[in-house]
Design goal:
The complex is a heterodimer of chains A (357) and B (80). With 357 residues, chain A is an alpha/beta fold. Chain A is built from 14 helices and twelve strands. In chain A, strand 5, helix 5 and strand 6 form a beta-alpha-beta unit. The longest helix of chain A is centred in the middle third of the chain and has 15 residues. With 80 residues, chain B is of the alpha+beta class. Chain B has a three-stranded antiparallel beta sheet. The longest helix of chain B is centred in the last third of the chain and has 17 residues. The radius of gyration of chain B is 13 Å and the shape is globular. The chains are: A alpha/beta (357), B alpha+beta (80).
């Protein structure tokens, strides 16, 4: 064996790892949704159930089951793992699950509302921190928090949680979901991030719940007309694309398949009740990794993706370059991959008009 | 921890190392070869010997390469 190209090639580039994973069908990017329960009651949430919802509690997978799936996913090639909910910290066995998953060689991101983070939690997680904690904030005052989440005191608790994480040297990123209730707080929420030198990302376009959440997305989300005057960027779920409401689309899709993202090709989502899904917005196709095996369910999921179709209308639509439509959003909005959604069409029209003006 | 995913060697930091870690680090075959020996707690002399046995390099080049490798690991927050 000779030295490679006679250079100090100790460090390869990771660019293209995602593409290679997709071409080889390796489940590189995974999400474990540990629970649908949450201590907050956000009125736009796509998943939320009450913290003591007995039906949900019974259907949740055990710590042992999640750890087993984690071990199998690591063997199958999962590198990036999102641990989320609901509010994952609401589970009494969260530390048991996290500790075991953290030993498996994942690059972990944890999503939380930060309201359950206290000094005791910090002294534990600081020894085994995730790569990043994404904290969702819902407003910039107790009043707006009360209106969105049902809890005014959650505002200060969340700020305390964020500051404790930062003091422990843990990487924090802020996220927020913009609704009719908190739209007036965009700048103030950005200021919360800036004061702490944190990044903040905004989600603007919300789709209906496919999971029977106890919330009211349709009345809370912004209409296309309301969104038109919002001059912030929205990062979409697909890492490679970005919907920019104040400019042209940054990127034309890499391919013209209905499922043009990594879902079911190199990424997956496992729901709180144990379904392996292409992404969080979908409720089918699903397969059961808990009663078969992770790899068996993954192979079936991959095989099902090319069968997903798109509405005929989309293929010749003039708004296509401006449209963020995907099968997952259509399924959530219309219950079908093949039916167009007036809400998504209006958003595309608005973005085109905004760009052209 | 060193993991091989999609034909790529990837260093995944564990424990408190995560907070010092500056992004994702991947290793070439040669880097992975040295890493596995570091995991067995090999010292610099043992790394040089191993490299000389496995690769067609002279001792001076091997030492320089290993110094560079260890320096990069330190600056990446991966090793002390």
């Amino acid at each position: 064996m000779g030295r490679e190209d006679d250079k100090y090639l100790w460090f390869d580039t990771v660019n293209g790892l995602r593409d290679v994973a997709a071409s080889q069908g390796i489940p590189l990017i995974g999400s474990f949704e540990l629970t649908a329960r949450c201590n907050l009651r956000c009125n736009m949430c796509y998943i939320r159930h009450d913290g003591n919802d007995k039906k949900v509690l019974i259907a949740e997978k055990t710590a042992e089951e999640w750890i087993s799936i984690g071990e199998q996913a690591a063997k199958a090639g999962t590198l990036f793992l999102l641990i989320t909910g609901g509010e994952p910290l609401i589970r009494p066995d969260f530390r048991e699950i996290y500790t075991a998953l953290n030993k498996l060689g994942f690059i972990i991101t944890l999503y939380t509302n930060a309201t359950l983070i206290n000094e005791n939690f910090i002294s534990w997680i600081a020894k085994i921190p995730p790569n990043k904690i994404g904290v969702t904030i819902y407003g910039a005052s107790p009043e707006v928090y009360a209106a969105v989440t049902g809890s005014g005191s959650a505002f200060q608790k969340a700020l305390n949680g964020i500051d404790l994480l930062m003091q422990a040297g843990i990487k924090v990123e802020l996220r927020t979901t913009i609704t009719r209730t908190n739209i007036g707080d965009i700048e103030a929420m950005d200021a919360i991030a800036q004061k702490r030198k944190l990044d903040i990302s905004h989600v603007l376009s919300l789709v209906k719940s496919v999971r029977g959440a106890a919330s009211d997305v349709e009345n809370q989300r912004l209409s296309a007309a309301e969104m038109k005057n919002v001059s912030i960027k929205e990062i979409s779920c697909d890492d490679d694309s970005e919907v920019v409401y104040k400019g042209p689309p940054k990127k034309v899709r890499a391919n013209d398949q209905p499922m043009y993202c990594s879902a079911g090709k190199s990424s997956y989502w496992i729901s709180w009740d144990g379904e392996l899904l292409p992404c969080l917005l979908m409720n089918e196709p699903f397969f059961d990794p808990f009663n078969s095996s992770f790899i068996d369910a993954w192979e079936k999921l991959k095989f099902s993706i090319p069968g997903i179709t798109a509405p005929k209308e989309c293929s010749y639509c003039e708004f296509k370059p401006y449209c963020s439509v995907c099968p997952a959003k259509l399924q959530a909005e219309t219950g079908s991959f093949e039916k167009i959604s007036p809400y998504i069409c209006e958003l595309a029209k608005m973005i085109k008009e905004k760009y052209e003006s | 921890m060193l993991r091989e995913i999609a034909g790529t060697w990837i260093v995944v930091p564990l424990g408190q190392r995560v907070v010092d870690f500056n992004g994702l680090m991947t290793l070439s075959e040669t880097g992975a070869f040295l890493w596995k020996r570091l995991e067995q707690e090999a010292g610099e002399d043992e790394l040089i010997t191993a490299l000389l046995e496995e690769y067609e390099v002279d001792e001076e080049t091997a030492k320089a390469d290993i110094d560079e490798f260890l320096k990069e690991l330190k600056s990446g927050g991966i090793a002390e």
